[in-house]
Amino acid sequence: MKFAWLMAPDTYWDEKKAFITAALESGIDHIVDTSDAERIKKLGSLTLISPEEEADIVLIGKDGEGDGTLELPETLDYSRDLEMAAELKSGGKEVAAYVEIRSKAHEELARKLGRIVDYLILVGEDWKIIPLENIIADLQEEDVKLVAAVADADEARVALETLEHGTDGVLIEPVDISQIKAIAELLEEIESETYELKSATVTRVEPLGSGDRVCVDTCSMMDVGEGMLVGSYSQGLFLVHSESLESEYVASRPFRVNAGPVQAYVMIPGGRTKYLSELETGDEVLIVDRNGRSRTAVVGRVKIEKRPLMLVEAEYEGVKVRTLLQNAETIRLVNDRGEPVSVSELSEGDKVLVYFEDSARHFGMAITETIIEK
């Protein structure tokens, strides 16, 4: 998973605090700083990267630590940086090394440190793609996360996408708070999973008896066209619409998806699924829109109640899938035009959006296996 850290600006405390607060509000909770550890820790639950040995992640190579890799001439012996990194690691510390790439000597230092430390921060005044490509390629088999220092979202995109894999993260060195929010939005875009939704033909709609159905209340607001991928079969999940529409019967609940009975699958981040009955407060689920774009939401609560159910069966290219939903006017799927359609109005021949996959599932993970679901 790609991530972002913030380099706290070297300025007076109130301005530094504003930058850190903006980062925390944008979901960036790793802060690099060399001077205000105690005050920063009071701002919230965060991870501090600092030269202090009491830091969550110990930083070497900046502001006097090690041989000061920011100032390395090409001929300087940098063995002390390597020794310090090894000593800290042997003492059970997480270590981040900060290296400015100004020459081949710095590039070689980065490679060597990358075989020791947990995080390798790569800094360049004028980033050249080739050194970054070289280091990514050389360290791709090592257990180190590469972090590129960037000033804005354009630089962040280059770093995160270089050599397809890109760096694992970016270190934001902003001059304006808006740059923090722009990079946070970029990360959300890059991490977003896209699901190819197919237009399946409804072949059966049948009221059933009662069962325990699950409402998933998230900590996010959903728009029209958004919902969750839910289904009784792992090979085909229906896009069940959120309760973001007004109804003559109930007020809208744009944070909620009335998802189906307890045994149904729901898609969660990482291409995995969970049973609806397994969801609980604090879990993450995927919100998916009519175009298959997704975003992550935190579950605020799960509400299970006994309600009358309805079976919906649909077919795409000879493959039939089914799901069960509450039999109510306010429960909706999404049709082939991207519009919400109530299950009470569904009939054979209608088209609804379904996500199909070839893999079976084992404990929620997609695997290559023959499986029959009825």
UniProtKB/TrEMBL annotation:
Gene Ontology biological process terms from the UniProt entry: amino acid biosynthetic process; aromatic amino acid family biosynthetic process
UniProt keyword DNA-binding present: no
**One Pfam family, short name:** DHQS_2nd
Q: Which residues form the 3-dehydroquinate synthase N-terminal domain?
A: 1-186
Q: Which domain of life is it from?
A: Archaea
Keywords (alphabetical) are:
Amino-acid biosynthesis, Aromatic amino acid biosynthesis, Lyase, NAD, Oxidoreductase
GO terms for molecular function, please?
3-dehydroquinate synthase activity; dehydroquinate synthase activity; NAD binding
- Give the 3-dehydroquinate synthase C-terminal domain ranges: 200-374
Catalyses which reaction?
A: 2-amino-2,3,7-trideoxy-D-lyxo-hept-6-ulosonate + NAD(+) + H2O = 3-dehydroquinate + NH4(+) + NADH + H(+)
Could you tell me the EC number(s) of this protein? 1.4.1.24
Q: Which family does it belong to?
A: Belongs to the archaeal-type DHQ synthase family.
Describe the function of this protein.
Catalyzes the oxidative deamination and cyclization of 2-amino-3,7-dideoxy-D-threo-hept-6-ulosonic acid (ADH) to yield 3-dehydroquinate (DHQ), which is fed into the canonical shikimic pathway of aromatic amino acid biosynthesis.
PANTHER family, from UniProt?
Answer: 3-DEHYDROQUINATE SYNTHASE, PTHR33563
Q: What name has this protein been given in UniProt?
A: 3-dehydroquinate synthase
> What is the protein's species of origin?
Methanothermobacter marburgensis (strain ATCC BAA-927 / DSM 2133 / JCM 14651 / NBRC 100331 / OCM 82 / Marburg)
Q: Which gene encodes it?
A: aroB
